[in-house]
Amino acid sequence: xxxxxxxxxxxxxxxxxxxxxxxxxxxxxxxxxxxxxxxxxxxxxxxxxxxxxxxxxxxxxxxxxxxxxxxxxxxxxxxxxxxxxxxxxxxxxxxxxxxxxxxxxxxxxxxxxxxxxxxxxxxxxxxxxxxxxxxxxxxxxxxxxxxxxxxxxxxxxxxxxxxxxxxxxxxxxxxxxxxxxxxxxxxxxxxxxxxxxxxxxxxxxxxxxxxxxxxxxxxxxxxxxxxxxxxxxxxxxxxxxxxxxxxxxxxxxxxxxxxxxxxxxxxxxxxxxxxxxxxxxxxxxxxxxxxxxxxxxxxxxxxxxxxxxxxxx
Length: 313
Prior knowledge:
- This protein is an alpha/beta fold.
- The chain has a domain at 3-115 and 170-233: Acetylglutamate kinase-like (Carbamate kinase), CATH 3.40.1160.10.
- Helices cover 37% and strands 24% of the residues.
- The chain has an eight-stranded mixed sheet with strand order 3-9-2-1-12-16-17-15, with helices on both faces. A four-stranded mixed sheet has the order 8-4-10-11. Strands 5-7-6 form a three-stranded antiparallel sheet.
- A hairpin with a 5-residue loop joins strand 6 (150-153) and strand 7.
- Helix 1 (21-40) packs across helix 3, helix 6 packs parallel to helix 8 (273-287) and helix 7 packs antiparallel against helix 8 (273-287).
- The two termini are 25 Å apart.
């Protein structure tokens, strides 16, 4: 028997949207070191990465291609492109990092489709930031160039386009993961939250333009594979309440009940920490195992209970 750790890594960890491929690959090697830590601790690992910056840039490339009469791909297919793109870089980096000492080590990347509901309110209230950041001075030009885009300020870092982010209800590939662990040691799945599809009559499916939050998809996968540990990596070592205010406070431990209360109070915005808290609650309630929110630098300390924010039942 073995324990499974599911790790959700943000797309910003690899790119801010304008990061050159060489630098993205360098950052992929940094992410691989995190996976190596968990592998050395005896875990099989599922990696679920984000794609916010990358999918926004991929879509901009489609629009640029119109000048050459190249038909653009829609946002759903841009999700597919970036899922394969980021998965390739992570798989290469993880293999090259661990295979030197463990030549039988195997990594598998699964391009995953994920079902969402047609009537999900997320389609009417876009909240997922994608693509690069724009300054306030650039905002007017962007609005003139792309009048149908919805722009929102993103955690004090600038303005970004936001797109629909419906909640995932089923990850098509998740039932394969447990079987694949008979041979693989690390599996990359649900990348970018998955390629969103909706169900039609007769159990057929069609692509839909959206970007699913990777933390919510990671939670579904973590439940499906019965993960013992669920790590949600972010830019800070702990969850904070009253963020940016004089009474800002670090939270080291938080019960599901407390997490729900903080959510209702608006402590965790929908476009940043909110989905991480919701995904954690969902996982903890379903499994009674703890979810851990921390940054990449502290993943080992968080595993040992010395750092991070632990959400428990």
